[in-house]
UniProtKB/TrEMBL annotation:
Location of the FAD-binding PCMH-type domain: 63-234
GO molecular function, one term: FAD binding
Descriptive protein name: FAD-binding PCMH-type domain-containing protein
Superkingdom field: Eukaryota
Lineage: Eukaryota, Fungi, Dikarya, Basidiomycota, Agaricomycotina
Organism name: Hypsizygus marmoreus
Length: 491
């Protein structure tokens, strides 16, 4: 018999409460100490703000943990002091910025200390240095809107509700073909190391290895309290330097879209051309239905037909193409702010012949059809990583991902479970594992840590993996972070 939704939730909350009481003992002392130092608005153990933080993560699976306290830092010093005590007391911890991690446990913690950056949301543009400074609590929609009147933007993501944790995974945006992964535009990072030391890392100072490791090393290398990034001159809202938008397609367009995407990845070399292809499956009235979409943006007055002609010639359901500002582009897919659904990501990376992309489509469609009753929807999306993006990262001192030469598509699979369902069946878990085997990354290609499953071990697919391991051993010699915080495996 299938359990009803309230039963599933009650069961999971019970499990979560048991885990909480196991871990909360040591953390209670640490939290009490921090509370007496900073007061109970900065360190909270209960109350409306505490509850809203712990229940507001994007994935329902990350709303079930109960930290012993939530620390709401106002500055880097608060993080330093707290980290020193967490390190001394050997307490579990987690960090939450935009809360969009699809990995359970990466942005919340049971019975430990959760850092929530909701009071550190400043963004500033310095026109002399041409640098934008971001505090970690800002979301992309807010950051882009705040500096748009100066005609600049920070490189972030493609949906407005997502936060700065994206940068630590690398970051894919419509600007990527021209400028690299979003992290490639880092200029200076303030980082609180596991033992509470605060350092400023740049490409050329004594922390240059840490600086590079943070371009893809996710939450493993410290807590970033300030990002200074190169400003991209994207124009103001009125300038509308792009042309493009969203096209929606009917079910039968899937194969043609995959063909067109594979060809785009192989043949397009123009850094002004961005594309995102998304195939979306849901079950309505017992039948698997699919809607597909692309967003395409070209930095220029129109969409060149030699680049986008295939997409424009596939019969579509609706389109909203036109002149666009950068903020229009980032708003094209909406905020991505839905809450209340359990989420899981998986990833792949594909290069080469169209047949590999079509294989992926067939396996994904088959998976979606088998498990759709348990799911609200599934989607598979392709982001082209052009050679120009790889080169841009190298020119700026290399990131930790450092893909090999040659264009490829970063692939994400997303499962969104039914609203309120907090556990997934064993069959579905097995199905996900099989899917990852059926659609492996092409040899040598990196997975994107922000959009893959922890079991896929994205770090091990990076060209910079050995570098990442060495750098981790240097900055966290007691391996505190990997023992006391959830995050990517492999270090
Ligand atoms: C709807 C949606 C759209 C997305 N679109 C894109 C996209 O266009 N491009 C793209 O590249 N990715 C995209 N992603 C994936 C995204 O990169 C990851 O989900 C990313 O982890 C989100 O960052 P966050 O700050 O919102 O999430 P969080 O869950 O708050 O943070 C993510 C991870 O980073 C850690 N972290 C956050 N801040 C810090 C810090 N200051 N110091 C140390 N560790 C920290 C957290 O502990 C967590 O492990 C999308 C995800 C979703 C759900």
């Amino acid at each position: 018999m299938k359990p009803s939704l309230p039963h599933v939730l009650t069961f999971c909350l019970a499990v979560s409460t048991q885990a909480y009481s196991r871990h909360s003992g040591k953390a209670s002392k640490t939290c009490a100490g921090l509370q007496s130092k900073f007061g109970d608005s900065i360190v909270q153990t209960a109350g409306a703000e505490y509850l809203s933080t712990v229940s507001n993560a994007w994935s329902l699976f990350n709303t079930l943990q109960r930290p012993t306290c939530v620390m709401y830092p106002r500055n880097a010093n608060h993080v330093q002091v707290a980290m020193r005590e967490i390190y001394r007391d050997k307490v579990r911890y987690a960090v939450q910025a935009g809360s969009h991690s699809g990995m359970t446990g990466w942005n919340n913690v049971d019975g430990g200390v959760l850092f929530a950056f909701s009071h550190m949301k400043d963004v500033k543009y310095n026109s002399t240095s041409d640098i934008i400074t971001l505090q970690p609590g800002i979301r992309w929609g807010e950051a882009i809107a705040a500096v748009e009147s100066y005609g600049v933007a920070p490189m972030g993501g493609r949906l407005t509700d997502v936060g700065t944790g994206l940068l630590l995974g690398g970051g894919l945006s419509y600007l990527a073909p021209e400028y690299g992964f979003s992290a490639d535009l880092f200029k200076e990072l303030d980082v609180v190391l596991v033992d509470g030391d605060l350092v400023t890392a740049t490409a050329t100072n004594r922390y240059s290895d840490l600086f590079r490791a943070l371009k893809g090393g996710a939450n493993r290398f410290g807590i970033v309290t300030r990002y200074a990034v190169e400003a991209v001159h994207t124009g103001t809202k009125e300038d509308k330097l792009w042309f493009g938008g969203l096209i929606l397609y009917p079910e039968e367009a899937a194969e043609a879209l995959v063909n067109a995407t594979a060809k785009f990845v192989r043949s397009v070399t123009e850094p002004k051309a961005a594309l995102f292809t998304c195939l979306f499956y849901a079950k309505t009235g017992g039948v698997l239905t699919d809607t597909h979409l692309v967003t395409l943006f070209y930095r220029g007055p129109s969409l060149p037909l030699d680049i986008y002609g295939d997409f424009l010639s596939i019969p579509f359901t609706s389109q909203s193409l036109g002149p666009a500002s950068y903020s229009d582009a980032v708003n094209a897919l909406g905020p991505g702010a839905d809450r209340g659904f359990g989420q899981n990501f998986g990833g792949s990376a594909i290069a080469g012949p169209t047949s590999r992309y079509l294989d992926a489509l067939n396996h994904f469609k088959n998976y979606s059809s088998i498990f759709q009753d348990e799911l609200d929807h599934t989607l598979m999306a392709f982001t082209p990583i052009l050679q120009s993006q790889i080169n841009a990262g190298r020119t700026r001192g290399r990131n930790a991902i450092d893909p090999p030469d040659g264009p490829y598509a970063a692939v994400v699979f997303q499962d969104q479970y039914k609203q309120g369902v907090a556990r997934i069946s064993q069959e579905l878990q097995d199905g996900r594992k099989l899917l990852f085997k059926q659609i492996p990354p092409s040899p040598g290609l990196p997975l994107y840590v922000g959009e893959s499953d922890a079991t896929q071990n994205a770090f091990a697919t990076y060209s910079g993996y050995e570098f990442l391991k060495r750098t981790y051993a240097k900055y966290d010699p007691t391996r505190f972070n990997v023992q006391y915080a959830d995050g990517p495996p492999g270090l």
